[in-house]
Amino acid sequence: MLINHNLTDVEYKDIIFEKRPCLDTDGNPIPDLYNAWIILNNPSQYNSYTTHAVKEVILAMREASNDRSVVAIVFTAVGDKAFCTGGNTKEYAEYYAGNPQEYKQYMRLFNDMVSSILMSDKPVINRVNGMRIGGGQEIGMACDFSIAQDLSRFGQAGPKHGSAPDGGSTDFLALFVGIEVAMYSCTACDPWSAHEAFRYGLLTEIVPALKVNGEFIPNPMVYTNRWVNENGDIIYGRMKRGDDLVHGKELLKSGEVDLALLDKAVELLCTKLLLTMPNCLSKTINSIRKKKLEHWDKNKESNRDWLALNMMTEGKAGFRAFNEGPKGKREVDFIKLRQMLAKGHEWNDELIRAVSPQYQ
User: Fold this and answer.
1) Does a structural domain hold residue 341?
2) How far is residue 18 from each of residues 21, 66, 73, 126, measured CA to CA in Å?
């Protein structure tokens, strides 16, 4: 009898864990070989991860890594709106804000989640079914491959909401896109379209997800498009400015989102990985992962310490503003905050009330 190397048996509640048969080159299921699908399941909050969900992802990655019948891991989420928008801001605001000792323990779990991806014995594919923002961007970049539907958006949010992207983005993003582009993304927090992210080198592939009159079309809101059609052909196109942007909005509104091409592209990559020597594949992936691990292992503990202490000041203000502020106004008054700090005002509840939208 084979030995079970899992840490514990798990009944998954906050995520979905599935084993789906591997497919051959003709798309037929292969007996006794599987891809493990680890699926975030919080669509009502854009698949943000709670503390309990983080624990389940860690155990699921470990289970899939240990499973002798698993070829590859697909990390994705429910729905078509978001892969992940990071940590659950409601939980952050209501429990962790103002409690650095608790957030430090949470960040231990988050760090272990990232490390569980980087240490998997199986290749990990991020199936980007929608927005990949903040911590979602970070766990996505920890994966070995990313294939996205082209309505997805990518980016950081930390400095806008009281944090720094020190859960992986300050370690990983420059490796993908270069220092200058990473610097702008992590500070200005302007999101990228999937086409921009692909052009910068962040993604393995993008495919269309918008179906209009029964046919897939590329994201009509993007000026320069690159996409893969149903036959696997790479197509390039360009939309005009002005009136065509209005037409693009109409197309977006009239169409339906269908992730069939995303699933097809993910399964194709899984099949390509299947047709390799397993140990040679694992060694190759681990050798390339070293570039991420060099930065991640060097910085993760000091970043955890800082992120915890930050929950007494900017994190406390930012996350509560996002959770409690009125719709369309969920950021602090940055100008007033800077003015008060410039006059030497201490970080206290008086300052937070003065700059937070929920108190205005």
Assistant:
1) yes
2) 10, 14, 10, 15
Kindly state whether residue 242 falls inside one of the protein's structural domains.
Answer: no
Are 283 and 340 contained in the same domain? Answer: no
DSSP-based three-state secondary structure for 124 = strand
Chain position carrying tokens 């209005």: 246
* 227: pLDDT strictly greater than 70: no
pTM reported for the whole predicted model: 0.94
Assigned token pair, 46: 């854009």
Instruction: Tell me how far apart the 2 most distant CA atoms of the chain are, in Å.
Output: 70
Contacts of 207 (CB under 8 A, 6+ apart): 147, 148, 149, 150, 227, 228, 261, 262, 264, 265
pLDDT digits (tens, 9 = 90+) for 258-300: 999 999 999 999 999 999 999 999 999 999 999 999 999 999 9
Q: How far apart are CA 247 and CA 221, in angstroms?
A: 9
In whole angstroms, give the CA distance from residue 193 to residue 56.
30
